[in-house]
Design goal:
Layout: E1 13-14, H1 19-36, H2 40-46, E2 51-52, H3 58-67, E3 71-74, E4 77-81, H4 92-102
Antiparallel strand pairs: 1-2, 3-4
Amino acid sequence: MGRRGRETDIRYEFLGANLGAQTQHVQYLAGNMAYNGEDLAEFNRLLPNALDLDGVDAEVVTEQLYAGTDMINYAGRMIYASVGDEMLIDELVEAGEALCIALGMFPAALARPSSGASPQA
């Protein structure tokens, strides 16, 4: 994550002792964004299940990671970018859905009334 043309020094590690476990936590974060992005209290409650917050309150981490960030890079490519002055904190559901798709998670499983997505039959 970052701002176009600029990187931050803010870093939090995904939970997990090895790459396989860390991958599961990346998927968990993506799902949390997609499912709970409109409910920041719930999103923040679940955030420590994906990231090592190093004693920092989840609300502060969310603000640090998403309020000043307008894009997500994954595997060396940009997979989501906000439009205009929007930041990821304003578009957590859409950014989470994009990350889920990039991770190979099934978009139909993400369908929820507020996302604008419709389940595939």
